[in-house]
Amino acid sequence: QQQPKEQQPKERQPKEQQPKETEAAPKPATMPNPRVAIVFYSMYHHVFDMAKVIAESLEENGIDVDLYQVPETLPDSVLEKMYAAPKPDVPIATPDILESADGIIFGIPTRYGMAAAQMKAFMDSTGGLWQKQALAGKPAAIFFSTGTQNGGQETTALTFVTQLTHHGMIYVPLGYAASEAFDLSEPHGGSPYGAGTLAGADGSRKPSDIEKRMAVKQGEVFANVVKKLARD
Prior knowledge:
Elements: E1 35-40, H1 46-60, E2 64-69, H2 76-81, H3 95-100, E3 103-111, E4 114-115, H4 117-124, H5 127-131, E5 139-146, H6 155-167, E6 170-171, E7 196-198, H7 209-231
Parallel strand pairs: 1-2, 1-3, 3-5, 5-6, 5-7
Antiparallel strand pairs: 3-4
């Protein structure tokens, strides 16, 4: 009688490995853009025009920008006699907006080689911030408007630096980053202290192309400093 052949156990075929689902790497948290406040006073819109140029430059360099005008201290009857332009549609600055900004640029018209009284009055209202050094370490810059070529394109900023110093702020000058500083082809505002414009003795002159290009460069220079400090 024939014996049945012993069944050899079948080799088990390895199961096909299903590729493991790879977990998506978590996306790095995106940091919000740094925010800069441009705080200015502008009776005839020369400073306001420069503020808009600097704001656009900051935004092109990855900065969120808020424009503020300081409160007026003169009555309407006096402003009317001075043929002041209507106030721009810009919020009124309060001390708390300085504390919330990552950097501040001050736009200052000159009165006898120094900051206009309206800007000084606003800074006088920041005593509470000074007392707790709330602005210490924040970068700050200055731009300006004067009636004439030698009417305070350096002294306006130089005398305002004392305000920044008492608050412990970091002054960021324009330096000679703008090649237009070397342009002697025509009279123009601006200095190593910041961008500037010449309004003319009667206020009829508007910011020139050279002055606007220097304002653009100031926005770029300031944006780079603010972003560097924000990363740290």
